[in-house]
Automatic annotation (TrEMBL):
Span of domain HAMP: 205-257
Protein's name in the database: histidine kinase
Signal peptide coordinates: none
SUPFAM superfamilies recorded: ATPase domain of HSP90 chaperone/DNA topoisomerase II/histidine kinase, Homodimeric domain of signal transducing histidine kinase
Catalyses which reaction(s): ATP + protein L-histidine = ADP + protein N-phospho-L-histidine
EC number: 2.7.13.3
Source lineage: Bacteria, Thermotogati, Deinococcota, Deinococci, Deinococcales
UniProt keyword terms in alphabetical order: Coiled coil, Kinase, Membrane, Phosphoprotein, Transferase, Transmembrane, Transmembrane helix
Gene (UniProt): sasA_10
Subcellular location, record wording: Membrane
Amino acid sequence: MTQSLADLILRPLLLPLLLLAGVAGTVIVGVNRNVSTAQQVTASQERLNLLTDIQKDVASLENGQRGYVITGQESFLQPYTQATADFQAHTEALRQRSTIALQQENLNRVVALMRLWKITSAQPEIRARRISLTNAADLVSTGQGKRQLEDLRTVLTEMQDREAERQKTAIDNNNAALQNVRLITLTGLLLGMGLMLYAALRAARTVQESVTFLSEGAQEIAAGRYDLRLPETRVRELDMLGGQFHRMAEAVQRREQEVEETTRALQNTNADLERSNRELERFAYVASHDLQEPLRTIGSYTELLGKRYKGQLDERADKYIDFTISATQRLKNLIQDLLAFSRVNRLGRAFGRVDTAELAQQVRAELDAKIGQAGASVEISPLPTVRGNTELLHHVFLNLIANAVKFRSPERPAKVRVWAERFNNGQGGQGWIYHVQDNGIGIEPMFFDKIFEVFQRLHGLGEYEGSGIGLAVTRSAIEQHGGKIWLSSVPNHGTTFHFILPDEAPQEYPNA
């Protein structure tokens, strides 16, 4: 079936565009659910905090009342009186935040038990103590007040346990939903990009085949096969061009027939025929050459579409954009880091002489904005020229210096120092040991090996940016030089990364 060039390119893209729109809708649903769950978790935490405050109020009431009974000093009734007011305020606040009937019922039990304790135990004991210690001791010895408070604390503990369970359930459901959204989003994006690539390759192959047929047929027509009819292609514009070839061939053929009438006409016709043949060949060449440009344009614009596509939302969804930007950026960064890790581990890297002093200065210039923003200082001592791969060593210095600035202590300005010293292990191994030292937050010894693994992070996503791939890239780059990396660190005082670049670096890294 013949179709226009625009249909050939755009129609196959409809499915991946719809798929990506579905992914955008899934992300919006996931964000809405995450916001709702976050509100539930926050409300639950507020109720837990209030339950804890009530526990403290009960303890203060009991301590104040017992203190007065034991000592008879009126000063002990001051915390008792304050705790009474705090208990009332906290229970009222909890009542306003309780959303289910069971919570209200249990809260009523707590208030009732407290009232019972005060009426039947606390206040009688206080009145008895004002008369004599013996009278108060007789009342305390019955153990009634203690039992009442134990019952009250039991109810509070049950309420805390149920609230904690509801909070955990909400968090678990939210994590599961986010995991599903993440999986659907990643799958949809990969599938959409795959379909776009497939559509682009299919359109390119169709156009290329059509152009090839047209070019070959035009060359045969130019060679004298004027009765040749070019096969129809799947592209309407190319079929129209083929029709032009046919009309040109028919014109040439008519001229040849007219040449037979007279010798002079034959000579003129032959001249016209030669001229027409040259024009036909030139036209075929130009057509064959120029039709490659649309093919390259198709590939370039399709690739640009795949790279620059993102979901288009209406104005009513603008308020969700802020929630999606962060996840989208992480995700982008994760993919870039994965590509960097893949490039670092590719086969067949060439090694040569690398001026690490110049390379470190270049990395510092690249990080100048982050260094200035952090108020950090980076001191680079004279560094040697070694045998290595510039791209790999660039990753090493970039990751180590960037981490030193990023994981700075909030208590002091960040200071980073880079230097190197000669290495000789006494067994024929020689080279240079590099040190990258900072005065940042430091690392616990139990994590020294873990941080070099892919996707291993010691902090939550909201604390520090990054995907947990940088140090894995660094270790891989150094190992490809035949070296090794390790660290020493004191928590809250700083970290020093050490790595060895041996003199006998490989000529080419054969197997990453």
